[in-house]
């Protein structure tokens, strides 16, 4: 999966699968989601950070993904969602993709 340095967060970011993103979300880590045709630090649309503790209504991971897909994904920005996480969170958990 793709790995790159984020100047906004000053750390390495790695792309992960949806299943891995759901595990980290359930553990309380911050996950970033972005439309598939956009880059992580884009001028027009930046990645959205989601974290379980910041949600006020206890929404599920699937609900958040479906809402993001409906409102932010189209033919221009991409029809799918890419999931990202800080590499230090990925390495602290003990597995590499």
Task: Give a structural overview.
It contains three helices and five strands, in the order E-E-H-E-E-H-E-H. It is α+β, with helices and mostly antiparallel strands. It has one domain (3-93). A five-stranded antiparallel sheet has the order 1-2-5-3-4. The radius of gyration is 13 Å and the shape is globular. The N and C termini lie close together (7 Å). The relative contact order is 0.27. The mean pLDDT is 89.
Distance between the termini: 7 Å
What helical percentage do the residues reach? Answer: 25-40%
Strand order of the largest sheet: 1-2-5-3-4
Count structural domains: 1
- Stretches where pLDDT is under 50 for at least 5 consecutive residues are none
Q: Strand-residue fraction?
A: 15-25%
Largest sheet: 5 strands, antiparallel
Write down the secondary-structure element order. Answer: EEHEEHEH
Number of strands: 5
Q: Report mean pLDDT, rounded to a whole number.
A: 89
Tally of separate helices: 3
The class by helix and strand makeup works out as alpha+beta
Shape: globular
Rg over CA atoms: 13 Å
Main features:
97 residues, alpha+beta, five-stranded antiparallel sheet, 29% helix, globular
Give the topology.
Layout: E1 3-6, E2 11-16, H1 18-26, E3 31-35, E4 48-50, H2 61-72, E5 81-86, H3 87-93
Antiparallel strand pairs: 1-2, 2-5, 3-4, 3-5
């Amino acid at each position: 999966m793709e790995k790159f340095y984020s100047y906004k967060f000053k750390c390495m970011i790695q792309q992960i699968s949806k299943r891995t993103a759901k595990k980290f979300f359930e553990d309380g880590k911050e996950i970033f989601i972005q439309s598939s045709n956009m880059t992580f630090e884009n001028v027009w649309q930046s990645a959205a950070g989601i974290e379980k503790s910041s949600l006020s209504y206890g929404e599920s991971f699937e609900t958040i993904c479906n809402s993001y897909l409906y409102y932010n994904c189209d033919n221009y920005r991409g029809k799918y969602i890419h999931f990202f996480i800080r590499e230090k969170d990925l390495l602290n958990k003990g597995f590499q993709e």
